[in-house]
Amino acid sequence: MRDRSFYFKGGERAVLLFHAYSSTPNDVRMLGRALERANYAVYSPTFKGHGTHDLEDILEVSPNDWINDAKEALQFLSDEGHQEVVAFGLSLGGIIATKLMLEEDLIASGTFSSPAINNETSNVRKEFLEFMIAKKRKNGDSEESIQKRLPALEEKLDKQLASIRNMVDEMAPHYGTVEKPIFIAQGGNDELINSNIAYELRDAFTNAAVDFHWYENSPHSLTVGPDRKEFEQDVLNFLTKLQWNGG
Predict the structure, then answer these.
(1) What is the mean pLDDT of residues 142-160?
(2) How many domains are contained in the chain?
């Protein structure tokens, strides 16, 4: 499968967009195009293990790999001449964007439907397993072979999801130290995570200027949901108000 990463050159002001767990940059491509039309440079890398024919590949990597992917993406933009960068992410991508904000010199960051603060209510495990099984069937795997592999895959999945939760638990105590602007967007019809954690996340950034948006009719992937146009405009408004030095 071809790499779904994209880079839209645009102007001096640059934006990183990170995709969701078990997905690809196609999650955020329409937002990327909207930002490109507004003259932003936009880069969205494919996280390791993602974008292949087999979802098992995701289970062979760790959150540290995705953090490294994010830092390499930031370096890529630096090499392209972009010194001022904002990072956004959908779901898992929002966790990685927030991690990057805590460790690197970003102008601002943002999350879209992201469990960047822990809450026990989540359908991610169930959805991942159903998606993986459906893909295996589509690829021609027999029901017998799928069921034989399933216990080992469930164990790997549980270990990986626990690693993500642990990373978030380590990040959360530092949210109060963030003074850069934060954008938080959440869909009211989120089918994967508890929508209300967006309010907990907002309240955790006690020293940041938080731009909070709730889209009542949007699902988890609000980047492609019914409120997409309003959402894209809100992201653009947030970027326009930032204190950019150049561009």
Answers:
(1) 91
(2) 1
